[in-house]
Amino acid sequence: MKHIGFLSFGHWTPHPQSATQSASDVLLQSIDLAVAAEEVGADGAYFRVHHFARQLASPFPLLAAVGARTERIEIGTGVIDMRYENPLYMAEDAGAADLIAGGRLQLGISRGSPEQVVEGYRQFDHHPREGETDADMARRHTARFLEVLSGDGFAEPSPRPMFPNPPGLLRIEPHSEGLRERIWWGAGTRATAEWAAAQGMHLMSSTLLTEDGGVPFHELQADQIRRFRDAWQAAGHDRDPRVSVSRSIFPLVSAQDHVYFGLERRSTDQVGMLEGGRATFGRTYAAEPDELVRQLEQDTAIAEADTLLLTLPNQLGVDYCAHVLRTVVEEVAPALGWR
After folding, report:
1. Where in this chain does the record put each Luciferase-like domain (predicted)?
2. Is the pLDDT of residue 25 over 80?
């Protein structure tokens, strides 16, 4: 059995062939897509976060709205760039969204992906300390975020408060019990996956790894997952870890599917340069359901993961994305034993 959700990048563009021509279109359709995902039997609705781009950027209003409109599915991010975040403000927003959703938030965070602007986090008034890299700053923000999510008091109350305080030091409110245990780290390497395990964060692995192991992408990713699980066990956490992988999977069952993704039948892994280093990009899967089953059976990373996030082309509209989800859930997943 696997959790099957979608991951939307939340693109919009003022083009006549785009179903999302404005930020309003993306936000409202993202809510509708989450509702549709729940209706077709999917398990999760996840959204990318990018700043300075025509994409989803501020996740918590959207997550709260999705939580209010759905009842069962997990809702989350993949991922929030911690270089840009105020950890305490983020903890307040996350706690509120999780309470609205009834404890269904699965929050993916990370150092972040390549930016649209040069050192955009500085525009948000976040600056690395002396001798610190931007990745170090992201981990520092993360450590503080995880710390305040614990619910322990840390702030000295005013001797003359506006409202009566409970005894002792005060914590961030609203506090959502259990949210600390539903934080995921988007790891681009095997080493960062091991670090995430040590911190007690679940692993979110995408269709990109910022290293080249000289083996097929899914084997490199499977090794990352195994190292994560080993590191989790070594850390002695008293709960089970979770692992998600993202894939572009398109069953070809209609003429429209063939028009959109028929050429992706020939897709293969790619190795390229990203931010000055070698990176491995996973293939797109596009084929008739029977052939997809055969191909996906050979994907060792999917086999290792408990959660599969399908990257959906949101600019093709809610109905088409829901069609892709339904086909995977109803025609592909059962044949693989995922349902």
Report:
1. 9-249
2. yes
- Mean pLDDT value of segment 302-307: 98
Token pair 């894939």: residue = 247
The answer to the question of residue 129 being in a domain is: yes
Residue-level pLDDT at 280: 78
| Per-residue confidence (pLDDT) for residue 311, from 0 to 100 | 96
The count of other CB atoms within 10 Å of the CB of residue 87 is 18
Q: What is the CATH number of the domain that holds 218?
A: 3.20.20.30
Q: Are 51 and 84 in contact (CB under 8 A)?
A: yes
Contact 76, 42 (CB under 8 A): no
Residue 76 near residue 40 (C-beta atoms within 8 A)? no
Is residue 159 one of the residues assigned to a domain? no
Count of beta carbons in the 10 Å neighbourhood of residue 84: 22
Cα distances from 258 to residues 141, 286, 290, 329, in angstroms, run 45, 9, 15, 19
The amino acid occupying position 24 is S
Residue 287: half-sphere exposure toward Cβ, Cα within 13 Å: 15
Q: Enumerate residues 6+ apart whose C-beta is below 8 A from 61.
A: none
How do 277-281 and 270-274 pair as beta strands? Answer: antiparallel
Instruction: Please choose, from the candidates 93, 95, 12, the residue with its C-alpha nearest in 3D space to the C-alpha of residue 59.
Output: 93
Could you tell me if residue 160 is inside a domain? no
On whether the CB atoms of residues 10 and 56 are closer than 8 A, the answer is yes
Residue 311 in domain: yes
Look over the chain and give the mean of its residue pLDDT values, rounded to a whole number: 95
Range of the domain at 107: 3-154+170-336
pTM: 0.95
